[in-house]
């Protein structure tokens, strides 16, 4: 199909279909009895969303669960055999361990630095430029960020010119270069540092918005009562920011559990840096075992569900208190 035809469909056709659906659905609702209209009208609005979620999320999830219970070659039902196989796989256990490391360190660092920068930038005259600078990594695609930091971490043997920025800085101080992405004792920490660099700006922006909602009168009253700035932060500001911190924390937990792009670009899971999502990708596109890849995907889904449930419960609790 000609690209101009596709452009016309995208620019004109899609909005036209949307308008036609809105007008048509409203006309249908108007034909119903007055007492029926309030019950029917919401379904015309949420119906397409439910259909899309069912097609692109619910159905693939159910299909993946089914495939994970079958043999990859014959399609025969084999129960939990695929799960037993992946849990016995050393590389999967390494991936689970690394995801746990991401879960703890990445979430903690992003929250800590985000809160620190939110508080510090709130007190300076150049707040806007400072926040823009810190948030800038979020404007870079994660793949591009991985490529950038791969060059930053480049390693050359001692005694040769260092082309990696970090090792060149170490050479200035006559320190030995480090194989940041090859050394198993520090490579996961290096990857987590890159993830923290990217996501700190997101955390800062959300927490800064919540910080500005803290009543100034409350802070002034605390100062009048003799509280110093540290006491005000821990006794007044931090409790008021707790709901927002929880939201950002759960978002970072989910991000840590499904980490893929940085690991894939920078190490491809080598040198004990594999994570669950990368292991699933390798099982699907390298080993070509759809059943075991689906089993890993289901394990990842089961790990995310408790976090989503907790977030939903917290949201409902907050709504009930309003």
Structure, described:
The protein is mainly alpha-helical and 322 residues long. The protein is built from 13 helices and no strands. The protein has helices at residues 3-30, 37-68, 81-88, 90-121, 127-135, 142-152, 165-172, 187-211, 216-224, 229-257, 261-266, 276-285, 290-321.
Summarize the SSE layout with pairings:
Layout: H1 3-30, H2 37-68, H3 81-88, H4 90-121, H5 127-135, H6 142-152, H7 165-172, H8 187-211, H9 216-224, H10 229-257, H11 261-266, H12 276-285, H13 290-321
Helix pairs in contact: 1-2, 2-13, 3-13, 4-8, 4-10, 5-8, 8-10, 9-10, 10-13, 12-13
Biggest beta-sheet profile: none
Report the structural category: mainly alpha
- Give the proportion of residues in helices: over 70%
Amount of beta strand: under 5%
The CATH topology name of the largest domain reads: MetI-like fold
What gyration radius follows from the Cα positions, in whole Å? 25 Å
Q: Flag low-confidence runs.
A: none
């Amino acid at each position: 199909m000609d690209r101009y035809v596709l452009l016309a469909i995208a620019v004109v056709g899609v909005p036209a279909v949307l308008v036609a659906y809105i007008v048509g659905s409203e006309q249908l609702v108007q034909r119903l009895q007055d007492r029926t209209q309030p019950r029917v009208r919401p379904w015309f609005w949420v119906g397409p969303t439910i259909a899309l979620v069912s097609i692109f999320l619910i159905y693939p999830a159910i299909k993946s669960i089914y495939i994970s219970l079958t043999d990859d070659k014959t399609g025969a039902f084999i129960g939990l055999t695929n799960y037993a196989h992946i849990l016995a796989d050393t590389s999967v256990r390494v991936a689970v361990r690394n995801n746990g490391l991401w879960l703890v360190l990445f979430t903690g660092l992003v929250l800590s630095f985000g809160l620190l920068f939110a508080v510090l930038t709130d007190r300076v005259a150049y707040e806007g430029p400072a926040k823009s600078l810190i948030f800038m990594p979020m404007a870079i695609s994660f793949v591009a960020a991985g490529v950038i930091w791969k060059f930053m971490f480049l390693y050359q043997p001692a005694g040769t010119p260092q082309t990696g920025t970090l090792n060149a800085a170490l050479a200035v101080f006559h320190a030995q270069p480090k194989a940041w992405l090859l050394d198993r004792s520090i490579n996961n920490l290096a990857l987590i540092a890159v993830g923290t660099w990217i996501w700190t700006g997101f955390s800062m922006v959300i927490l800064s918005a919540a910080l500005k909602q803290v009543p100034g009168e409350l802070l002034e009253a605390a100062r009048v009562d003799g509280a110093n700035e540290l006491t005000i932060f821990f006794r007044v500001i931090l409790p008021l920011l707790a709901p927002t911190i929880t939201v950002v924390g759960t978002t970072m937990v989910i991000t840590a559990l499904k980490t893929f792009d940085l690991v894939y670009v920078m190490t491809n899971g080598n040198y004990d840096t594999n994570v669950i999502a990368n292991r699933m990708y390798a099982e699907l596109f390298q080993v070509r075992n759809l059943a075991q890849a689906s089993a890993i995907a289901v394990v990842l889904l089961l790990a995310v569900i408790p976090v989503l449930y907790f977030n939903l419960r917290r949201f409902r609790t907050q709504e009930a208190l309003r």
